[in-house]
Every structure is written in structure tokens, then in C-alpha cells.
Amino acid sequence: MNNFRCFHAKRMSSDLSHDLEVSSLSALCPLDGRYWGKVKELAPFMSKYGLIRFRVLVKIKWLLKLSQIPQLIEVPCFSEGAQSFLQNLIDEFSVDDALEVKKIEKVTNHDVKAVEYFLKQRCQSHPEIVKVLEFFHFACTSEDINNLAHALMLKEALSKVILPVMDELIAAICNVATTNSSVPMLSRTHGQPASPTTLGKEMAIFAYRLSRERRDISQIEMLGKFAGAVGNYNAHVAAYPEIKWPQIAEELVMSLGLKFNPYVPQVCYIEKVLVIHQIRSQVRLHIVQGNLGVANGDLSHLSTKLPISRWQRDLTDSTVLRNMGVGLGHSLLAYKSALQGISKLQVNEAALAEDLNNSWEVLAEPIQTVMRRYGVPEPYEKLKELTRGRAHIPIDAKTALLNLTPHTYIGVAPDLAKNINKAINMVNRK
């Protein structure tokens, strides 16, 4: 029987291996299986294809930068045609191109070197570029290419996918807040009834919190370096000592929309970018909480692991960085699930009203507060006396208190809810 099982397993592995490679049923991660339709927008940026595409971009941008250095006569300034040719390699980079790189990698056994060979092959037909093919990787170390590629992956994924969905989620919560700005509901402290609020104001809290997180994420500076093997431009200076290489590297990094990091070892980390996204909502959407938990776990590990380098070449980072898309994918899935849940929400005003009707004791707070205003000593002790008709406060104040109900004792909660969009706009302007 055991032999049969072994044979059956081997046959399944052999017969179905190709089908499993292309089927969502074979995905080890649910992001690539069950939830693919909701997170596939991240694929152009956070996938292996995305990494290869950005490596191609960095190498081409480096060659173009070298062609602009007058002292580097071996790489003359390219014609417009040559520049367009190189730019098209970036703009038209396809999945088939990425597969070609992977095919080359099987020979080179080195992923960054495979990108170099791919570019050399593609540029063989161009009379200008073919003369300078070796400069695609001039004075580079693999981490020069990888750190910029990873930073660009994250930058593009955030700006084009994650932040727009966060904006959509914030807008949806704001809509719930303003629509229900005056719907009263009971609050609780330590599990006991407390001063009433409104549903809209409570939802506005979450919109405001998320808007602050969104702002903080959007303002994070993504660092990049291009300083050679150990960050000293050793090879650069050996070949061209007269060129100001730190300035050249800074110009290159900044041209990519990244912040230049002038002091680096071998590895340059994407620090403070892998931020933990977390929303605690009264909606209690379980799928949201579950995916945010997974995202927080993954991104927490990356945020604590990557800023620490044990050696000049800490290869543990390589496998960790391959999982950047996992944390962002679960965050994206959580945001979209929250949006879907919010669109189905219906306010049960009857239940909220019943809760308030059963909690008239919350009016003890305003009565005591008004009594204190008018100098009534020991207001708590005399509260019972007030209910027996013994006047300790002016008649108009007493009348106002008598007209107060748990439904109307909501302070400025409606205004706070109605003004949530204005408050978020102020956050975004900071």
C-alpha cells in the first residue's frame, strides 16, 4: 500500500506539474490563488517580472547617465535615436522579455548578470550602443541595481495601487460619517453606559486615523545608493579619478524619484517604508482583520530585519525582499474587503434608539456639570434632591436639563462628523 502511495504521488507530481504551475489551485499563497482577482494590480510592480523590469530600467538609466559625463569619452553622448531605442526597451518591456531573462539566468546562475546579458543581446543591432555594451554594468555591484529596483517597486506600488485604494476607503468611511452624522448612539467606558455620541462621529474617527497613516506613508523618503561594492566608489575612482562620482550617483538616484543615501555599506535598505497598516473598526469585518494581521506580521518582520546588516553582503535580505509583495497584497486585500463591507452596511437605528432609551442614567453627567457651574456644593450627593424638585440652579437651566434626553445629549458630535472631509484635507496639507 505504501509503495502504491509513493508511486501515485510521483505520477501526480510528474503528470500534473505543468498544470499546477499555471493553475491558481497550485498557489502556495492565497494572494496568487483565491484572491488573485483582488490583488493582481500589484503584480506589475511587486512580482518577479516587476523586479526584472526595474532592474532593466536602472541599468539603462545608468548607461544613459554615463553618456552624459564629458570626461567619460568611452561612452559618447547618445543620439536621440539611441536614447529612444533604450527608452523603448524600458517602456515596452514585456512578460516575454522577463521570461527571456529567466532563460539566460539558467546559464549565468546570476539574476542581475542575466539582465546585463539580455540588454547586450537586445542592443547588438544598434550601431551606437553596441560599442559600449560593457558599460551597462560599469563599476556596479548587484546591490547597486537591486536596491534601486526594490525601492522603485515599492514606490510605484504605493503610489499607483495602495494609496489610491486607501483614498477610496477613506472616502467611503467619510461618507458613512457624514450620512450618519446625527444618528445618536450610546457610548461606553469600562463596559458601562457613558455620554452618548453619534454613529457618524465615531466613523469619522477611523477616517481621520487612516488619513494620517496615509499621509505618513506618502511622505516617507525612499533611500537609494549607487556607490559600488562597499559604498566608497572604489572601482569608479580607479577607472576615472577625475570624475566626481558621488555627485553622479546622487543625480542618478534623484532622477529616479528616490532620496540619495551618501553613506552606505554594501546593502542599502528601504527603511521605514514597510509601514504596518492597521485599522480597528467597529465594522468588525473579519476578513479585514485577518488580512491586516497577516500584513502586519509580514511587514513587521521586514521593517525590523532589513535595516540591520550583519555583513557587507547579508544574503538573508535577498529572500526576505522577495516577500515585499505579500504584506502589501494582504493590505490591499483588506482595504478592498473593507470597501466591499462598507457598501453593504445598514444602520439599525431602532437598536441604537433602544440602547439609548435604556440608559437614562447617562444624563447624570450633564446635571452634575450644570450644578457645578452654578456653584452647587456636593452636586453628586444633591442630584437626588434635585429630582425631588428642590431647585439649586436657575429655572432656565433646569428647564433645559429637563428637556434633555439620551438622544439629544450628543454635544457637537454631528458637527464633528459633518466636518470630517475638511479635517482630512487639513491633514493632507501638512
Question: Helical percent range?
Answer: 55-70%
* Count of individual beta strands: 4
Query: Nearest-angstrom radius of gyration?
Result: 31 Å
- How would a textbook summarize the main sheet? 2 strands, antiparallel
Low-confidence stretches: 4-21, 268-284
Give the structural class.
mainly alpha
How are helices and strands ordered from N to C? Answer: HHHHHHHHEEHEHHEHHHHHHHHH
Q: What value does the average pLDDT take?
A: 84
Q: Total number of helical segments?
A: 20
Task: Please report which band the strand proportion falls in: under 5%, 5-15%, 15-25%, 25-35%, 35-45% or over 45%.
Answer: under 5%
Q: Tell the overall outline.
A: elongated
Please report the distance between the alpha carbons of the first and last residues. Answer: 70 Å
- Give the strand line-up of the largest sheet: 1-2
List keywords for this structure.
single chain, 430 residues, mainly alpha, two-stranded parallel sheet, 20 helices, 4 strands, 4% strand
Please characterize this protein's 3D structure.
The protein is mainly alpha-helical and 430 residues long. Helix content is 60%, strand content 4%. It is built from 20 helices and 4 strands. The chain has helices at 2-22, 36-39, 43-46, 48-66, 80-91, 95-108, 111-122, 142-179, 199-218, 234-239, 245-255, 286-305, 316-321, 324-343, 349-357, 364-373, 379-387, 395-402, 413-418, 420-429; strands spanning 184-189, 192-198, 223-224, 259-260. The strands form 2 sheets. The chain has a two-stranded antiparallel ribbon. It has a two-stranded parallel sheet with strand order 3-4. The longest helix has 38 residues, at 142-179. The model is unreliable at 4-21 and 268-284 (pLDDT under 50).
